[in-house]
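Hi! If you just cloned this repository, the fastest way to understand the data is to look at a raw example. We've pasted two of them here, unedited. The first protein comes first, obviously.
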Amino acid sequence: MSAMCNCIVLLSDNHTITQSRASTIKMAKAKLKEKSNYNKGFTLVETLVTMLVFTLVIEAAVAILVSAIRLQKYNLAYFKIVDQTSYALEYMGRQVRMAQRDSSGGCIASNSRFEIKQIPAPADLGITGLMFIDSKGVCKGFFLNLSTNRINEYDFSRGQKILEITPDDIEISSLNFELLGQSGMDLIQPRVAISMKVRGKNPGVQPTANIQTTISARNLDF
């Protein structure tokens, strides 16, 4: 009987020890889980560094976007002034290409096809320009009006009227003509080299362009 009692007490003690160990292991696991959950978060330094990097990336992206928009605006304004200037050059080219020799000397020097001279009255502004006789025998000229910075056409057939051939939203700061092959004995076809400096007048965006072209007379110079 005594032996049986000792066995029961021993079993009871073993069961108590087993429960104590199980409880200790459970508590240890709970602490490990709590520590693991705590380590999943960010520290204050890590958060500040992340925010700084994010801010730098956003600022760089915004700077690139603003630069691209400015470049696009500049390119659009540049192509606009080139397009408008091309129209003026095409208009002058059609007139100059069909110029005739002035056999009487009533418009320019006798037997000349072109001449750079002062624009006559009523456009007597003390400004020189390119004078010639067009295909219809009319005395004409092109010059830069310094008061408006626009290219003007002198037309004797319209009561010596002055016509503006460039729009108001571009500014011609310089207009130069160079004559080549004016002598009938040099065996060189007469031609006119035209060069100009153009600037846009749009607020904030004012691109500039240097444009040059050479126009040859269509009629053979014999």
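Ok, and the second one:
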Amino acid sequence: MKNCFKKLGCDPKLLAVPGNHDLQRPTASKAEVKLLEQWLNDPDIRKEFWNEPKGQYREVINTAFAKYDQWWRNTPLKPEGVMHGELPGDFSCTFTRGDLRLGIAGLNSSFLQLTDKKDYEGRLSLHPLLYAVGRTYPNDAAKQQKELDQLREFVFRKDSMDREE
């Protein structure tokens, strides 16, 4: 495909996030999977998930999205400068043209869709965005903090994050 684009004189870049079709579903009876199904009802599960990157819950997610993550990290169509986030498939990047900067955050919004149940409507969790956006200005702490504060204000109105800072 890249050769076809080259013949047309363009060099497009690909930004992608995983969907629920991009994961290898774990065994639904596995204890960690059953507990992750209680995500909305149990703040302790959310706290442990976000505060223990090497914990049992993250291992379930990392394993479920391992093939997607390998593809995403190695695709030659990805733009330079993509920063990977906390979950497989999360990323942020900035495109610059002249004085304009466009920041894009990609989020794995299907990380809790581990089973083949179809009851995921209304269960989007936005908190990985705080991590991704926080790195938009890596050399300007004041801009970074202002952006994070604005985003936190928006997210906390919409979604309880339960992450300890």
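That's it. A detail worth noticing about the second one: Confidence is low (pLDDT under 50) at residues 155-165.
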